[in-house]
Structures are given as C-alpha cells and as structure tokens.
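FORM 12-B: Structure-to-Sequence Request
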C-alpha cells in the first residue's frame, strides 16, 4: 500500500505543477490585455482632451472675431453710418463680360434697407394713400386693410404674437418699415408689379400705417421723415447667430449606412396643385384642341369639346384664388362666375364692384365670349379702373379653354 501511495503523490505534484503553470500563463495574458486596454483608453482620453483644447481655442478665437466685428459696427453706428456695408470689391480680374453701366446698376439696385438707404425722393399723404389703396389693393386686402378671403390682413393683430394663429402686420410683428416699402414697391399691386411711382408707394405705406393707428390722418410720409417712424415690434427681433454658436455643436457627419433598398411614392400633392398632372398634359391638350375663342361659345350650337374643358380646368387655376365657379360657388375676392356668359356685367348680388363695372351694368352691357376674351387679355386696358389686379392671360388658347370651362361648369 505504501508503494501505491508513493506513486500517487508524484502524480498529484505533477498535476499541481501543470495547473500552476496554466494559471500563470492565463494571468500573464490577462495582464497584457488589461494593459493594452488601458493604453487605448489613455490614447482616447488624450485625443479627446486635445480636441477639447482645440475647440476651446477655436471658440476663443471666434469670440474675439465677433467682439471685433461688434466694436466695428458700434463705431460705424456712432458715426451715423448704416450697419449694412457694401459688398467687398474683388481684387482679381477674370476678364469676363464688361463693366456695368451706371443706369444698369441703378435699375438693379432698387432694394431699401432698414437704415433707409435706397429710399427714393418722394412723399405721400394718408388720404391719397386711401384712394390708391381702394383702387389698387382693396380687391385683395379689403378697403380698410382688414383682408379679404385668403388674402392677408394688413392692419391690427396687436398682442396676438403669442396666440396659436398670430396676425402679423406692421403694427404687430414687422420690425422695419422698409420691409413694407420695399415689398410694395417691387411686388405690388398683384399682377401689375412695379407700376407704382415712388410717391404712390409712400402714400400707400402711409395709409397702412394709419390703418394700424401708428400715425395721424394728416401725416405725410417721405424719404426725409421715413426713419422717424418706429414700429411697435422693432425690439422683438435678435441677430440670428446660430451659424456661429450652435451649428458646430450639433452638426455631425450624415449616416450613410443601412439605407432603404428603394423609395416608393405613397401620396401625391395634386390636391393643392403642386404635383404635375400624371395623365396627359393640360398644355398639350390646349395646343391640340383649342381652336380660338369661338370654340368657347360652341355650347350654343353643340357640345363643348371635353378636351378643351379639361384644359380650361387647368388654366382656371390662375383665377381660382379670387373666383369660384360650379356648385356652391360664392363670392370671394372676386364674384362667383356661374352663368357668366350672357350675364349683365356687375350684377352679382352682394359683391362690391368697381365703378367701371357698375357703369357697364347700368348701361345694359353683358358678358359675351368676345367681351370676356378682351377682358381676360387685358383687364385694366379693357375696363380702366377695375379692381381686378391681374395682368391678364397672355395665351389666346388658355383664354378659350377658361371660357369653355366656366361655361360648362357654371351651367351644370
């Protein structure tokens, strides 16, 4: 038995030696892995710290730049200069084109800045502005700038900016009067932009100011006192510095992985006239089927070409912002157009017509295809003084299609 025990003891010793060696190797591998992991963490932390230092230095440099720009603007403002400086002149000459003529620059340089630069010489009083507003603007904005239909309100809205649906006017929202002058001068009246003189623009702006209770009825607005008018919300705006203070914080590289295999169109916006028609081309239909305005009056002799009616539905979109036709049509900025052909001009109940329309109705004039064609071609040239602030339809084929559509829908 002692011999067996002697054999067993060396066996135990050998096993222990093997286990000890294995444990030593395992411990050494674990230590090496741990050291390697810690070294990686140290490198990452060092890199992060370096980035933080670089970002901090960049932020300090940006702060210094903004402070210098602020100081420069303060010096300019203190000296009576404007805060908007001319664009820098490029030193490099590319050898392309030619130098712009003074009259060309004057034609392009029509904007008016918040500090008054760009204002032309002129003036306009409130009562002249009221007459011009009724003639040129009231069809869309109402006689008292109260808005009409879907056209915006130009007066009031005081204290509504915190509402769910605020009313934004120069009396409640806009900070600079130059915005109104510049927009009206360049873009109004609707359909006839750029036709107002400087004096007329001053007068209309004066009337809008009066409608917002910002000036008295005897006030005369001019380039000399323009900057004396302060709007109520002038201090409600701040400089948008997000490009410098925020964008660099949250802007990251876009994700370019795990993208969808394909894109499927699930809905069209044709209900709001955004998506082009997918079945046929309305313009092609007009070109192919419209044969002049006589085709619009074809209903007296036979059925109107369905393709012409379809083309007219598309062309009528430029009229639909002011006029309705068809079932349940009602007056909007313009009168409803049901039964228009053969109807006495200016005869829709409840609609306030211009004097020229009322005079035509009192004279017994009616809307014939020829009269409607002439009016749609040049509204103001045909009836001087009309409230319809629209430049007219230039394409005779569109006119024929519109008349056909009105005749077909308005008599159903």
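FORM 12-B RESPONSE
SEQUENCE OUT:
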């Amino acid at each position: 038995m002692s011999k067996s025990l002697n054999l067993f003891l060396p066996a135990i010793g050998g096993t222990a030696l093997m286990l000890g060696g294995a444990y030593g190797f395992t411990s050494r591998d674990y230590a090496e892995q741990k050291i390697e992991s810690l070294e990686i963490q140290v490198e990452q932390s060092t890199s992060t710290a370096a980035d933080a230092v670089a970002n901090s230095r960049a932020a300090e440099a940006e702060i210094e730049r903004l402070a210098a720009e602020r100081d420069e603007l303060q010096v300019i403002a203190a000296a009576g200069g404007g805060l908007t400086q001319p664009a820098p002149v490029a030193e490099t000459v590319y050898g392309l084109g030619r130098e712009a003529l003074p009259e060309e620059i004057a034609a392009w340089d029509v904007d008016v800045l918040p500090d008054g630069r760009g204002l032309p010489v002129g003036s306009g009083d409130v009562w002249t502005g009221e007459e011009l507003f009724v003639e040129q603007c009231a069809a869309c904005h109402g006689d008292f700038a109260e808005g009409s239909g879907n056209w915006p309100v130009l007066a009031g809205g005081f204290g509504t900016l915190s509402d769910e649906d605020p009313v934004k006017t120069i009396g409640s929202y806009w900070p600079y009067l130059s915005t109104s002058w510049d927009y009206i001068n360049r873009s109004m009246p609707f359909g006839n932009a750029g036709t107002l003189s400087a004096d007329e623009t001053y007068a209309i702006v004066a009337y809008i100011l009066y409608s917002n209770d910002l000036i008295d009825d005897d006030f005369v607005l001019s380039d000399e006192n323009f900057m004396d008018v302060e709007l109520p919300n002038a201090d409600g705006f701040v400089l948008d510095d997000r490009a410098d203070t925020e964008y660099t914080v949250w802007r990251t590289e876009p994700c370019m992985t795990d993208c969808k295999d394909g894109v499927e169109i699930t809905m069209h916006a044709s209900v709001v006239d955004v998506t082009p028609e997918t079945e046929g081309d309305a313009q092609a239909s007009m070109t192919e089927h419209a044969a002049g305005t006589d085709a619009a009056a074809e209903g007296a002799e036979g059925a109107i070409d369905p393709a012409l009616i379809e083309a007219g539905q598309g062309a009528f979109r430029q009229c639909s912002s002011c006029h309705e036709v068809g079932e349940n049509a009602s007056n909007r900025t313009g009168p409803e157009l049901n039964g228009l052909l053969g109807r006495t001009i200016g005869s829709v109940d409840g609609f306030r017509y211009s004097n020229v329309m009322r005079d035509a109705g009192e004279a017994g004039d009616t809307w014939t295809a020829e009269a409607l064609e002439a009016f749609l071609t040049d509204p103001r040239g045909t009836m001087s003084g009309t409230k319809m602030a629209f430049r007219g339809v230039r394409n005779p084929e569109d006119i024929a299609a519109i008349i056909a559509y009105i005749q077909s829908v308005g008599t159903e």
